[in-house]
């Protein structure tokens, strides 16, 4: 079991397959002409499996594949199939643009749930936010996943003045569709132009929904990052991930492997531990994992508090979101 100094047990590993992506969402990528990590510096398929096995042997029972966009990697299907043979719950976070090509792979790998990023239900705004004209493809692929019996969680980064006026459009989507909408407070990362006045908070999101709907609080489970709700009579549900105003660090069970094989014990951690180089040198990996988790801060990587109104993005020392893995 991987336990930190705050007695938190870590059984959930997020593995980034690549920092490459076929969209250009401004809150994730620093700029359009981004220089991606050379393939030789990325974890190879067999290295991903080797590292995953070490974590699984220590109690990890859930693995999420992330990116960039994990499905743009040429050997994504091979990696999914190999990890699906481990005794874990396997899932992934995706922008949804390539899901129609992976239906059979997902079924073969026994993947029952997906997180799909979609920040707007307006095609023109999708183009503005992602710099790619693929809204309809993503929307259709969400419907395709639902039709194939896969549970879909839609991740919506809620931003003041950009898409906060669409919150109830997303809630309306849950009326007839068994979908789970997750509104995420805008978080600061390198190069994403974060400012405190762009954060649309958990409280503001609930106020906006309650202008039109009567909501009911659902029971949150241990280690949940989201606060879950339902509108009575709706087929789907919604939630808020309140990282900036009400973080969930006390129940954190998550670890991250970046695409270049660095372990991060927190999304906001400054320190990284190079597992890939150690693996390639034949060195012992478990002591490095334990050392990383042993130094994990109590909350938010030790970098800031929940009073984000006085926070400046340049004071946060971290990678861009795309190089961490969502």
Summarize the structure.
With 326 residues, the chain is α/β, with parallel strands linked by helices.
Task: Give structural notes.
25% of the residues lie in helices and 19% in strands. It has helices at residues 45-57, 76-83, 103-108, 123-130, 135-147, 167-173, 202-210, 275-280, 286-294, 321-324, and strands at residues 2-3, 9-10, 12-16, 62-66, 89-94, 113-117, 151-158, 180-185, 215-217, 227-231, 237-241, 254-257, 262-264, 273-274. The chain has a 12-stranded mixed sheet. A two-stranded antiparallel ribbon has the order 1-2. A hairpin with a 5-residue loop joins strand 1 and strand 2. It is globular and about 60 Å long.
Main traits of this protein?
single chain; 326 residues; alpha/beta; TIM Barrel; twelve-stranded mixed beta sheet; two-stranded antiparallel ribbon; 10 helices; 19% strand
Q: What is the tally of beta strands?
A: 14
Structural class: alpha/beta
Count of DSSP-assigned helices? 10
Helix coverage percent: 25-40%
Distance between the termini: 24 Å
CATH C-level class: Alpha Beta
| C-alpha Rg (nearest Å) | 19 Å
CATH architecture: Alpha-Beta Barrel
Rounded mean pLDDT is 91
How do the strands line up in the largest sheet? 9-10-11-8-7-6-5-4-3-12-13-14
Largest sheet: 12 strands, mixed
Number of domains: 1
Which ranges are low-confidence, i.e. pLDDT below 50, for 5 or more consecutive residues? Answer: none
H-E order: EEEHEHEHEHHEHEHEEEEEEHHH
Q: Write down the CATH topology.
A: TIM Barrel
What order do the helices and strands come in, and which of them pair?
Layout: E1 2-3, E2 9-10, E3 12-16, H1 45-57, E4 62-66, H2 76-83, E5 89-94, H3 103-108, E6 113-117, H4 123-130, H5 135-147, E7 151-158, H6 167-173, E8 180-185, H7 202-210, E9 215-217, E10 227-231, E11 237-241, E12 254-257, E13 262-264, E14 273-274, H8 275-280, H9 286-294, H10 321-324
Helix pairs in contact: 1-2
């Amino acid at each position: 079991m991987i336990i930190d100094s705050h007695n938190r047990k870590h059984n959930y590993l997020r593995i980034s397959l690549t920092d490459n992506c076929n969209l250009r969402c401004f809150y994730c990528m620093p700029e359009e002409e981004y220089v991606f990590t050379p393939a030789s510096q990325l974890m190879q398929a067999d290295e991903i499996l080797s590292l995953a096995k070490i974590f699984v042997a220590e109690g990890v029972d859930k693995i999420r594949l992330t990116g960039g966009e994990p499905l743009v990697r040429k050997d994504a299907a091979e990696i999914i199939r190999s990890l699906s043979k481990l005794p874990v719950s396997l899932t992934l976070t995706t922008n949804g643009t390539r899901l129609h090509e992976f239906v059979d792979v997902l079924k073969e790998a026994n993947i029952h749930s997906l997180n799909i990023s979609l920040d707007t239900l307006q095609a023109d705004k999708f183009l503005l936010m992602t710099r790619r004209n693929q809204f309809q493809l993503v929307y259709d692929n969400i419907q395709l996943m639902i039709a194939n019996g896969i549970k879909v969680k839609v991740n919506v980064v809620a931003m003041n003045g950009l898409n906060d006026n669409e919150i109830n459009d997303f809630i309306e989507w849950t009326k007839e569709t068994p979908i789970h909408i997750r509104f995420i407070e805008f978080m600061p990362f390198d190069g994403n132009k974060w400012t405190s006045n762009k954060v649309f908070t958990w409280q503001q999101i609930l106020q906006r929904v309650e202008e039109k709907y009567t909501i009911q609080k659902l029971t949150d489970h241990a280690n949940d990052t989201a606060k879950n709700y339902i509108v009575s009579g709706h087929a789907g549900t919604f939630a808020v991930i309140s990282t900036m105003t009400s973080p969930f660090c006390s129940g954190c069970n998550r670890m991250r492997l970046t695409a270049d094989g660095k372990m991060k014990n927190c999304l906001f951690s400054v320190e990284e531990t190079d597992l890939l180089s150690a693996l390639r040198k034949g060195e012992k990996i478990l002591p490095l994992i334990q050392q990383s988790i042993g130094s994990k801060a109590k909350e938010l990587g030790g970098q800031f508090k929940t009073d984000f109104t006085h926070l400046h993005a340049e004071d946060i020392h971290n990678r861009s979101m795309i190089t961490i893995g969502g």
